[in-house]
Amino acid sequence: MKRGSIWAWLWVVLGAIYFFLPLYATFDFSLRLKRGVLSFAAYENVFNDARFVESFTFSLQMALWTILVSLILIVPTAYWVHLRLPKVRPFVELITLMPFVIPAVVLTFGFIQVYSKSTTFFGIALPSILSLDFFTLPGLMQVRDFVSSRTPITLAFPIILIAGYTVLSFPYMYRAVDTGLRAMDVRTLTEAAESLGANTPSILWYVIFPNLRAALLSGAFLTIAIVVGEFTLASLLVWPAFGPYIQLIGANRAYEPAALSVISFGLTWATLGLLQLFTRGQQGQIAGAR
Amino acid sequence: MTHTDSTGTPPAPPKTSSSLWAWLGLVPFFLFAIAFLLLPSLSIFINSFQAKNGSFTFKNILDLSEPFIRNAYWNSISISLVTAIGGGIFGFFLAYAVTLGGLPKFVRPFITTFSGVASNFAGVPLAFAFISTLGRAGMVTVLLRDTFNFNIYDAGFNLYSFWGLSLVYMYFQFPLMLLIMTPALDGLRREWREAAENLGANSFQYWRYIAMPILLPSLLGSMILLFGNSFGAYATAYALTSGGAINLVTNVIGAQISGDVLNNQGLGYALALGMVVIMSLSLIGYSWLQRQTERWIR
Lengths: 290, 298
Description:
CATH class of the domain at 78-236 and 285-294 in chain B: Mainly Alpha
CATH topology of chain A: MetI-like fold
Oligomer: heterodimer
CATH architecture of chain A: Orthogonal Bundle
Distance between the termini of chain A: 33 Å
Strand content of chain A: under 5%
């Protein structure tokens, strides 16, 4: 296998260059804010920018809400399908794969079309969900809307944004949960719990959730990786999230965007590194549309 | 208590009395899917066939043949094809190298982990990473100019062009290919190669007549996924070209959402509908190829 090995090394080295060169260049570039010396000044600027902290916190909150909604929707459904309705499994799976058919831009377009107008539903006038603001969260009220530079405003609770992120998280979450459910004997566990007098919610909470811990963690980390830097939905629905913030800085500054890129790469690395740690050997494949 | 040793899901016992009740368990999920998948898609579909006054029309669909729109589709489709094929081939060779290339053991987890990260590292930060590398003041550009007196921009390279964007897309395309192809390559059984060699086949013949026919469906299927992966991409191109030096369908839709750039609401919806149709066709192709693969690789 000598000859094969040389070719293999060539591909690996090429791949490694492709991986690392942009990262190295970005890091190098991010240190050159001060002429002639290498410094972390760009990073200081970034961390001292209130908008960085605000937009990042906002996106993190969105990620947590998305995980919550996604779990509440996916886990009971996947469990139920496994246990009672195996014949609808392909259909449920198809629905969770829809984000691969409907690009995020198109999804947003549809959201705006359906939910931005006040509609009448069987004669009852409903306000648009996009402008609902009676769900305000304390944490969100401080967020400055830098996108349209209206200074401190009260923000509505971003229902549509979270719903959109939940849709985007479906493929990863469903796959993780489905794999987790296949790995355990759902029927026996359920029957055992039922014979001890448990009802369905307690079975889900005390039996299924704990057994799915690794799968759920992997789905959750992937969701964080996707949501925190997400740009398309956040920018088109005009929310002051981390993705639009990076874009805004990129349009106005030279070195800070490089620093932000390094930070956000570190974040992706950290979330996916944690994912590998928690799910050692369980998830063969991290990303990908399957 | 007896229980059959089943790892999969045995068919549910017939419980006719509670079957309607069983369906109720799926209501929350389906309600969500209707509200946030079906209704938005349906609204785009309906609006594509509506004129300004609300009457039915095919005009929006026919208007997709306008030069500007045709150009956007052409760019989106060609960049997706280029990066799917390019990223597919490179990713396949890399997957081959880490699975069957006879490399030391530590290389594989290293490359796979990094691919997992890289395939998720897209969007705005990725665009800035490449601007720092190959932009006009990027590290590689400056290095080549100062040490070799070679200006890549004078030589015709431009990061903010079609090929530049393709290069950027490749960063998340080939790692994805690697992640999808490694299980398929692992599925090639050693007995097949030994059997072929016993019958006198050389390495080329083994690949030409045994391995390639088995791998081809998953190879093509993965490339279709890569195609969809870049066809729907919006943020990377937006950040790289600040909104639209390269005319892509996603960017036109984005601009149409922010303000009616096409001066025709209906055309915007038809544009979006066209994207969904292309994506659906590619997913159908993918699942067909997936079934072909499963006959051999389990």
